[in-house]
Structure formats: C-alpha cells, structure tokens
Amino acid sequence: MILVTAATGHLGKGVIDFLLKTVPAHQIAALVRDLAKAEELTAKGIAIRKGDYFDATSLVKAFEGIDTLLLISSGSMEDRVGQHVNAINAAKEAGVKHLIYTSALKTSFQTKFIPGVDHIRTEEYLKSSGISYTIFRNTFYAEVVPMLVGNALETGQWFYPAGEAKANFVLRADIAEALANVLMAPEKHLNQTYEITSGKSYSFAELAEQLSDVTGKTITYTAISTESFKAGLVQAGVPEAFIPMIVSISEALKDGEMDVTDAALEQLLGRKPTALSLFFQANYAA
Questions:
Q1: Which of 142, 141, 102, 147 is nearest to 123 (CA)?
Q2: What string of DSSP letters covers the chain?
Q3: FRET partner for 107 with CA separation of 20 to 30 A, picked from 122, 137, 207, 258?
Q4: CA dist., res. 159 & res. 250, Å (int)
Q5: What is each CA distance from 270 to 182, 235, 246, 266, 273, in whole angstroms?
Q6: What CA–CA distance (Å, rounded) separates 63 from 55?
Q7: Would the pTM of this model clear 0.90, i.e. be above it?
Q8: Residue 285 — pLDDT band, cuts 50, 70, 90?
Q9: What domains are there in the chain, each with its CATH number?
C-alpha cells in the first residue's frame, strides 16, 4: 500500500491524482493533520490516516501496513529536521519498505537557501536509517515565479537581487507525476538521489523577456543589492520573521544554486518536462 503525506497540500493532492490514473483507490492512503480538510480525498475513496510530524506515536499508527511512503518535507520551520526524523523513525518501526523524500536541488551544508540545511541533514539521517529510499532534490516550482515577480506586471519594472545568475524552474504537476511514477515502481529507484530540474535555466532578464512576450507589456529586469531588497521588504510591511527566508531565496538564486540542468526528471516522466513558457501563457496571457 502507498501512503502520501501532506496529502491536502498542492503537491500531495497532485501525486494522488496521478496515482489514481493507475492505482486503485483502496491501495492509496493519505496522511492528514485535519480530517475536516480531507473530504475531497475521502470522496475519491482514499484511506485517510491522521498524523502529525510532531507526534511520533501518531505516525507509527498511521504508517501501519504501508509498503511505500512519500514523505513530503514539512512546511513548518519549527524543528523541521526533528519532524522528519520522527517520520523516518516511525516508518522504520511500522515496517515501511521504501521511503521517498522531497528535498532541495543540489542541497549542501553550504547552501544559502535556509531550508536547504534541514534537507541535507534529513537526507543524511534517512540514508543512515536502513530504510530503502529515493530522494527527489527539487528545484523551485514554477509556481514560485509570481512571488518573485511581485508587482512588476503593473509597473513594468522588476527589481530583484538575483544578479545575472540563471535559475531553473519546474511545474509542480511534473514533479507530482514523477513522484507517482516512482511510488508505483520503487524497486527501480532503490537508494537513488535525483536532481529534479527542467532542461533549461533562465536569467531573470530572459524571464522578463518571456513575460513581456506573453503579456504584451514591456517588463524590464533590474538587478538590485540585497540591502535594497531587504529595505523594500521592510517598507512593504513584510513581517520581520519572514524576511531571512525570503532573502535566502534571492541569495541562493544569485549564487547560481538553482542554475542546474539534469536529465532525471525527463527520464522519470518518459517525456520532456513542461516548458516554462507554457506556464507563463497559462497564468499571464491576456
């Protein structure tokens, strides 16, 4: 039996939808914290297991009878590694045979991306656990681009501190489909780590050109300093607690941490990943 954690989130729901195209609903389980949010999954015939990454006991019970587990990394930054360790330990105790974990692209202890350190620590713990694993090191979702663009569509000016570096973006749906493929045949991916990217990286100037073409508006990218970016966040009223995370994204991009292309996603999908231009057309075309 397959279990998908964080099943009411965008990625979790996407994975389940792809699984349902091939796997009978009674062979799929979903881990949720709030049963009230699982009505859509219940209607599809998915078995609902209640559990919380902070509650190790709840996870052991939720993982009973599960052969293959998708551990979607926690969205909560509070003791994030501890949450993941709870899930890995529970999986081992419950007899899970294979665990898939969603990490970050080319993560390391030197990454500028704040959550990246949590990811590498989780990866190391998973590898030492003795459970068979597959690690998806995902680049940024294409769905992150609108957050980076801000109000540039209205002003025509895109100010961001990414310098001249390039970045790689992938549609969340493509990652969900690839994860579903691995969940259905984990024996083909034993103890593998995949760098999940599209086939092309883009500078922010190139992204601005694509947005201009799709929207019919001239959008100009201007690289600014990190200090100016921070000041703008403060002026915009962004809560102080969120600023380090937002800045770490820009620093990782500026350092080229997301300028990676790898064939793994194409191989897992059996086709080329969806072009970023199609995402822009779907979301920005007039």
A1: 102
A2: -EEESSTTSHHHHHHHHHHTTTS-GGGEEEEES-GGGGHHHHHTTPEEEE-BTTBHHHHHHHTTT-SEEEEPPPS--TTHHHHHHHHHHHHHHHT--EEEEEEETT--TT-SSHHHHHHHHHHHHHHHH--EEEEEEE-EEGGGHHHHHTTHHHHSEEEES-TT-EE-EE-HHHHHHHHHHHHH-GGGGTTEEEEE--S--EEHHHHHHHHHHHHSS--EEEE--HHHHHHHHHHTT--GGGHHHHHHHHHHHHTTTT----SHHHHHHTSPPPPHHHHHHHHH--
A3: 207
A4: 11
A5: 12, 46, 34, 6, 9
A6: 13
A7: yes
A8: confident
A9: 2-140+171-198+260-273 (3.40.50.720)
How many CB atoms neighbour CB 235 within 10 A?
8
155-213 per-position pLDDT tens digit: 999 999 999 999 999 999 999 999 999 999 999 999 999 999 999 999 999 999 999 99
